[in-house]
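Ticket reopened. Same input as before:
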Amino acid sequence: MRRMQNVGVIGLGLMGKPMASNLLKAGFKVTVFNRSRPAMDALAAEGATVAASPAEVGRASDVVITMVPDSPDVDAVLLGPDGVCSGARPGTLLIDMSTIAPAAARRIHDAVTAKGFRMLDAPVSGGDVGAKAGTLSIMAGGTSEDFERARPVFEAMGKTLTLCGPAGAGQLVKACNQIVGALVLNAVAEAIVFGRAAGVDPDIMIRVLQGGVAATRAMEVRGARMAKGDFAPGFKVAHHLKDLRIAMDEAKAHGLTLPSTSRVADMFAALVGEGNGTLDNSSMLTVIERMAGAAPAART
Amino acid sequence: MRRMQNVGVIGLGLMGKPMASNLLKAGFKVTVFNRSRPAMDALAAEGATVAASPAEVGRASDVVITMVPDSPDVDAVLLGPDGVCSGARPGTLLIDMSTIAPAAARRIHDAVTAKGFRMLDAPVSGGDVGAKAGTLSIMAGGTSEDFERARPVFEAMGKTLTLCGPAGAGQLVKACNQIVGALVLNAVAEAIVFGRAAGVDPDIMIRVLQGGVAATRAMEVRGARMAKGDFAPGFKVAHHLKDLRIAMDEAKAHGLTLPSTSRVADMFAALVGEGNGTLDNSSMLTVIERMAGAAPAART
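Engineering reply: fixed in the latest deploy. New output:
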């Protein structure tokens, strides 16, 4: 292994772009590709090399990171015509940091390793704030050898790096994270709706609850804004819905339903249906207000 | 106000007994009453005076704390025959630290203040562990004058003392706390059920989630035991069900239903119905397993 690997980054959205910036700041030689031009130009100005295709990223890189919306995008970018695998050398480490279905992650892992590549699934949590700050939590699935090879790359982007198990395990832990994240927001939202109707001062409620066993990071970071009806994203409803559907599909593959996750997914789907899919996921509070029969609070 | 007030404690159960002990340790002269004898004898051995009735506690005390199961008990002990109010001097401060309905707290407050007494509702969180350690979170409703008068007494029993608003406000914030507590456990439990079926290592899941925005105190203190199927209480299902019913009744008085709280209350009711009301509230995981169609895990 060379001291400093050449890293490719494909997918320069809200997450991928700051992640690529942090790789450049850490001294990596970075080659980027994105469907649209402006993000590539911005990174070129920071020192990145712009590639004409995923295949060209593959040719230029020892490690290729993909950060794209969903599994069909990962498929296309890695295995499609002009995809990474058509350009990369055998042994290249592919790291998919998108949040996709664990089953798709395992399938893609098997397809690319059959071609002689190495692969980790490595979804993240921490949002665009964590991506910018380089403090993402990175949950990986794959071999410990590949994880150690990826470690310097991960360290440029994240703070907490965890090998969760074999291929797909990163996506499984991410699914657990998204289940808990959604249901904890549900808890905070229902308490705020109740408290408002009953005349509780939301700031006092938050202060008291955060001092005890009911404390949650979600209430700490979102509670005050939720109580004010400020639902600027943040993490968008439509994205969280996608992630819950991944969890429900994986559960189904094991013969399970997820009773509370399904209900919160329905709340998110209602928001998407009414054109509010781009609000923060904490806007499920407005659905709970309607289900509860509560008067909607003033929105900021 | 005297430098050191005489404090009465009525109700020496899992919570009241260690709270009275901590008052003795802090140097208060403490008079106790309990329906059954052994707890009174134990506190007498620590220096408490044993009273023959709540009225006698009232006669001996400047401040009387009640810590009893539910509002009929508070009614009986304060306002019933031989109750505190039949013995206490006007101006005596009555502090009900039981968890009861906010409406009942307001009604009892109005009844005793009409007789010339002062009153705070001051339910707690932190459980028997917090009661023993003197680290309870105390959430009070009443006037700031009465709250300040109670402060030295509260400081002997708790760590976080919050005046939440007027009479009943302590119970309202406690209700918020119990809603969030129940729904956060639901979140943790559903993720554990999902994770187990999907083959996630629960210790890794907990470690990763606790590092991010999905972090909850409940997963921190209970997650590992829940994953092992260890449901020794802790906070019992039957007690949490009582508290959720208080929240749902208060919501109803404001024309609201609480969609997710109702569902978790149903889970607790199912556990009580099958004779498992004395398990820890985290045993709702077993109900989720059944709803999800998951194989039950081994229990410890």
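Chain A touches chain B through 68 residues (CB under 8 Å). The mean pLDDT of chain A is 96. Please confirm and we'll close it.
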